Amino acid sequence: MVETSRTRNAPATREAILSAATQLFLRDGYDQAGLRAIAAEAGIDPALINRYFGSKQQLFGEVLKVAGKNPMHLFEGERDRCGERVAAELAACAAERPRQLTFLGLVVGATGSPEASEMASAHIEQHFIRPLSRWLGTPKAQSRARLLCSLLMGSVIMNNIKPRSPADRQQLARQVQSIIDG
After folding, report:
1. Per CATH, is 10-64 categorized as 1.10.10.60?
2. Hey, what's the torsion of the CAs at 97, 181, 171, 87, to 10 degrees?
């Protein structure tokens, strides 16, 4: 049922739509998450989704953007210590794990839909692979960036299952650094 007594508040409405969309995309997948169901979950009229986001595709893109914090800050600083920074960040960011897992869940869930899969791939390419490739700036930079992306995504999942020991973090730091160093 659509809530009619809600005071108009654009930021709150936008947040309600994003939250509902995130939950339904995670639970039902992109193709099965309908705009009417998202609107019902958010307690708004379905027309507001188009007003705020334009389309389901644009809404999914925004959900990916919100869930996928740009990781490029990990590559700032001394290049020869980057592996240590990345491993330390993965170990230290327990507060970030729900957001990281949400992003990974959206990406994995997107694989069932050619449209959503393309959007998730384009998001990762734009916000991680290309910037990291430029930062690496070496032969085979793109393939190394993809390898590093895969390693980091898998590490987030594994670290959530069982947090890394200090020895495991050192090994991850060496693996990341070897990819960076080429």
Report:
1. yes
2. -20
